[in-house]
Design a protein that fits this description.
The protein is mainly beta and 144 residues long. It has one helix at 2-14; strands at 36-47, 52-62, 70-79, 85-93, 99-105, 118-126, 131-136. Helices cover 9% and strands 44% of the residues.
Length: 144
């Protein structure tokens, strides 16, 4: 009987299963660090080719886990006077993986290049959905 219990216990241990008791530490998951935006800029300018205003957003994003841990970057535009959200724009990676950029025809947005009260939050997300952000005032024709 004891021999069967010993064989059964050895068979369970040989199968590769791991048994934890209350005294064993729980293994930690992978460590993750939050991405951060080290620099950002944006604003509006007139483009005679398109006969339209162009809104642009750009940012340098870093991540201690590696630059390829950054999955998405967005520009969230708010009315700085009322605090209301106005519009969100996606930024896209470039040949330099830490530099993200996008530009948009003014006629396709809710933004007004003559309004100087916008605030922009550049928000960078990583593969764990952690995020870091940086706020700046965009350049407009009526700056501030």
């Amino acid at each position: 009987m004891i021999r069967n219990v010993v064989l059964l216990a050895c068979g369970a241990l040989a199968s590769g299963c791991v048994v934890y008791t209350n005294d064993d530490p729980v293994p930690a998951g992978p460590a993750n660090y939050t991405p951060y935006v080290s620099w950002a800029d944006g604003g509006c300018y007139y483009d005679p080719y398109y006969v339209d205003d162009i809104w642009y957003f750009e940012a340098n994003v870093e991540d201690p886990d590696g630059i390829y841990d950054v999955t998405n970057v967005y520009a969230d535009v708010y009315d700085g006077r009322t605090g209301e959200w106005v519009e969100t724009f996606e930024l896209f990676p470039t040949a330099d993986p830490s530099y993200w950029f996008s530009d948009w025809l003014g006629s396709t947005t809710w933004l007004d290049c003559y309004y100087g009260g916008y605030e922009v939050d550049i928000v960078a997300y990583d593969s764990f959905n952690d995020y870091g952000s940086l706020t700046f005032l965009p350049f407009t024709y009526n700056y501030y």
